[in-house]
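User: Here's a structure from my thesis project, written as structure tokens. My advisor, Dr. K., wants to see whether a designed sequence matches the one we expressed. Can you design one independently, without my sequence as a hint?
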């Protein structure tokens, strides 16, 4: 009988501790810095699937608390290019958008700004951002959060 009561009590506590609004992944850009996202693959324009690809480099963004961002590309041969700039997070409806203004470089992938130096990143959730280059007929680049 004591086991049944203990089991019932444990079951009730488990159900009460669950919150229907509790999401394991936030839809917001993280607020603790630094935040690092690494390139994962291309997002299809028609589907929300990531195409696994092998590129001759690794690429990542590092966002800092002072609204500075560094984008780094490391080639397979070890050659590294880093550029820096500023970012702001804004909201359009329920979507967060990160606008990144970078130095002019061969690793910028923006469609707007002088020489394509402005990149628009959509926050899909706290673990995924998408660099949308489809307005200028490019692919969408997916970056996943690196846990530190």
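Assistant: Designed independently from the structure alone:
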């Amino acid at each position: 009988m004591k086991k049944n009561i203990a089991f019932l009590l444990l079951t009730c506590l488990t159900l009460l501790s669950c919150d229907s609004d509790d999401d394991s992944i936030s839809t917001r850009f993280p607020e603790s810095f630094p935040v690092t996202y690494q390139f994962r693959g291309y997002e299809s324009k028609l589907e929300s699937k990531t195409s696994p690809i092998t590129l001759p480099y690794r690429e990542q963004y590092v966002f800092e608390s002072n609204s500075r961002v560094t984008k780094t590309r490391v080639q397979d041969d070890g050659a590294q290019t880093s550029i820096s700039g500023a970012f702001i997070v804004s909201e359009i409806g329920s979507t967060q958008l990160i606008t990144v203004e970078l130095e002019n470089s061969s690793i910028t992938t923006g469609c707007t700004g002088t020489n394509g130096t402005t990149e628009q990143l959509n926050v899909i959730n706290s673990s995924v951002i998408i660099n949308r280059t489809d307005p200028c007929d490019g692919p969408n680049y997916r970056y996943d959060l690196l846990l530190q």
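When you compare it with your expressed construct, this may help: The CA atoms of residues 34 and 69 lie 9 Å apart.
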